[in-house]
Amino acid sequence: MPHSTPEIWQWPATAVADAVRTRQLSAVEVATAVLDRIERADRVVNAYATVDRDGALAAAKAVDAAVASARDPGPLAGVPFSVKDLVVTRGVETAYGSHAFAGNVPDFDAEAVARLRRAGAVLVGKSNTPEFGHKALTNSPRHGYTRNPWNTGRSPGGSSGGGAAAVAMGFGPLAVTTDGAGSSRIPASACGVLGLKPTLGRIPNETAVELFSSFINLGLASRTAADLAAGLTVTNGAWNDDPWSIAVPQTGFGVSDHPIRRLDGLRILVFRRMGNRMVDRDVERLLDGHLATLERHGATLADGPDDFDWAKPAQFAAMRAYQRARLDHLLDTDRDRLDPSLVAALEEGRNQDLLTVQGAPAIRSGLFRRVQALFDDHDLIVTPTVSAPPPPYDHGQDEPMTINGEVAGPIRANWYGYTGTFNHTGHPAISIPMGFSPDGLPAGLHAVGRWFDEQRLIDLAAAFEILAPWAQHWPPDA
């Protein structure tokens, strides 16, 4: 175990599993350490919507019983994990961050959660999310604001802000996230951890309301590339209840012994902007440094065209149409209890032009073809994950973003406009920590790969984990 991470709650998932399987630690010891850490430190950060202490300790005891009887406890034996409060969990409230679903306790798990439990991982609780994951800033009417671990005056991003903050704080080394427009990657950047959106269908998302036109993925957050690989190995693979996952082979992922060597020969296409006017100077400086590192180790870089058509209006139309179809009835039953920004989003959905909504799928198809063609000559697309450090924790979804002291414009287009495109094209994407701004706020590098090429993204993360390490850095209270 590295000397820089002596506390049990700081151990990565891979180390926890090895220690539990070999009886160096008990799963109960691990769960207790993480639960106590949450009790001590989550009062300000508010990463968790619900903590299931009794359930976690019972699961940990079951893992220890398997080890004691020489039964295989699973590849993630004793590893604590969180699940976003949008994902169904057996026996633990799934409220979607909403008063409208308070007390909703499912009697089954989403398949990805079930796979983690069968692998010996221990569900600690549900991470906070904005109501129904509708925005990139994490606060909900039911569970309040989540704060950024590095500066509690700032947002952790969203909508998987609770999961990313939990991983950053040592509240469990793995988090199950969701991602409909960057929701696993935006908070990973803001909190200084890894955030993966896999290829559409790689991890089953069978509980989604609309399956066939889906652009919403289940993803993962972790502090290390090895943990990300371990979590993805367990959760991926075929599942007949998700049409995108049918016949997707279960694949093992790992970390190379020499990940830096895998940078040699990479062909990388760089987009510094994707419709946004501005990039924060410190974010751009960090990006430039990482791009220079890639070149030093044999990668070749090219700049993407400034006029590339990212079809942003059609992406927005599809999102609003999906939200309206799923949630419009709440305007009639629960309007006064909903987040005002969700009300505004649903009203926008009601007012959309029908032809715009009907035309969005065809435009999405054209976008896929254009992005797919970029990979004819390039192995990866690289951008910043977001254009600037995170805004104040109580920043409104409809308030403009300020960058370099100047009002840049709406937050959707000008802060997190890099990520959502790849939900609609289905390509896998990852946010990799690339350091801190002078005021101590994290920033992320966003890399996009070919369909089902998550291993290349993990390799990239593993290389930067060595070249520009972040995993030994902990928020100030740690």
Kindly list the characteristics that best describe this protein.
478 residues, alpha/beta, Amidase signature (AS) enzymes
Number of helices: 15
Number of strands: 15
Distance between the termini: 17 Å
* Basic shape: globular
- SSE succession: HHEHEHEEEHEHEEHEHEHHHHEEEHHEEH
Low-confidence stretches: none
Proportion of strand residues: 15-25%
Number of domains: 1
Question: Which structural class should the secondary elements be placed in?
Answer: alpha/beta
As laid out across the biggest beta sheet, the strand order is 1-3-2-6-8-7-14-15-11-9-10
CATH H-level name... which superfamily? Answer: Amidase signature (AS) domain
Helix content: 25-40%
CATH class: Alpha Beta
CATH topology: Amidase signature (AS) enzymes
> Mean of the pLDDT scores?
97
Report on the architecture of this protein:
InterPro entries: Amidase (IPR000120), Amidase_dom (IPR023631), AS_sf (IPR036928). Helices cover 36% and strands 15% of the residues. It is of the alpha/beta class. Strand 9, helix 8 and strand 10 form a beta-alpha-beta unit. The mean pLDDT is 97.
Write a brief structural summary.
This protein has 478 residues and is of the alpha/beta class. Helices cover 36% and strands 15% of the residues.
